[in-house]
Structure prediction request, 388 residues.
Amino acid sequence: MAKILRPPGRLEIILKESAALFRDKGYGATSMNDIAEAVGIRAASLYNHITSKQQLLSALLMPIAEKFTAGMAEICAADLSPISRIERLVALHVRLTVAHPGPIALITGDWVHLEEPDRSTFLGQRNTYEKHFLEIIEACIAGGAFSPIDSRVALFSMLSTLHALHSWWRKHPGDPAVLESQMVHCLVEGLRQK
Amino acid sequence: MAKILRPPGRLEIILKESAALFRDKGYGATSMNDIAEAVGIRAASLYNHITSKQQLLSALLMPIAEKFTAGMAEICAADLSPISRIERLVALHVRLTVAHPGPIALITGDWVHLEEPDRSTFLGQRNTYEKHFLEIIEACIAGGAFSPIDSRVALFSMLSTLHALHSWWRKHPGDPAVLESQMVHCLVEGLRQK
DNA sequence: CAAGCCGGCTAACGAACATTAGTTTAAAGA
DNA sequence: TCTTTAAACTAATGTTCGTTAGCCGGCTTG
Prediction:
């Protein structure tokens, strides 16, 4: 039984530092030297653990996309009211953001640097995710739970906030459950006092 | 009276193409060659119109920051109820986004590549802008117009949507007034049917 | 027609880039 | 103690980067 619990795992350090750098400076503006320096290593030594910068991005982005896809599938499969599905979706975003605040930041912009076939895979998952999200919103409107607003505008509004969650969490970490209820309040109930 | 209405103005073309490329690929991943190619010119020829890549970013970002600062000052100076100020702020974002959909995209992420002193100037303006925005939200809560939610969460939620507006506008251009009322509905009134 | 200049161009610079090859170090297993 | 092996290193590759220098064609203006 070779090695359980080896140090902290060099690869994971590299992934974590890469995510932070990609998030802060962007994939294109982050050099292998930057990453190596953050890890405390020479740039060439990184290649003992990874095969390319591109694969690094892929290793960060693809599992996250997968998690969102799986979460959406679970919510769609469950027997829930449309409004409950919305709440579950907010919870999904909060949970994944808290668990992976680094890689999740890349979903907004740095996916453009993915090469094929990862790029197409990622975009496909993203499209179906948003399609399902839209259908749930439309179900809320049809059922009278939501006002008869433009469903695509509502989707855009919710998603842009949920995608930016990581920046909020980094500055104000706290109880995920509290954050979740605050998000539901802002996004669904609205700010206006009733 | 030298030249009114000269062709389309080469510099403006360069600025517009740069904004689009910075927005799509990020400042660091956009090369002078990319910009030159988009303009239909060789990279070296760009320097007949600009002094550096850095100055290009600065020329795109700083005027936008200035416009937000000026807009906020105007709203603060006017004699308005807190809730009216919120509506005016949404209108300000919609108006600037529609007028400058390219450069406005850089406000979210690419400002990190600004060099001093522009970087500090930009951050200063951004901070005071958000401070004023927060005060207006708190006035809404204090006056009973808003629910007693965490004001910073409300600010984050509104700003993240307003900052992402450009991506929506690019895909679904239309009547700015309609967009504005939809935004007010999503951000203030909430999606939930009352 | 001549002068000037605006805005292209080619050529070249050093620096930084991602990546490869080959070597050394040091800890683990025999 | 000797062997193996993972993971660091140095050195070097060719490419691309932003930028400078200098040239040249073709308008505009006298």
User: Anything to note?
Assistant: Chain B is about 70% helix and 0% strand. The interface with chain A takes residues 24-30, 109-110, 112-113, 137, 140, 144-147, 149-150, 152-154, 156-157, 160-161, 163-164, 167-168, 172, 179, 182-183, 185-194 of chain B (CB under 8 Å). The longest helix of chain B spans residues 53-77.
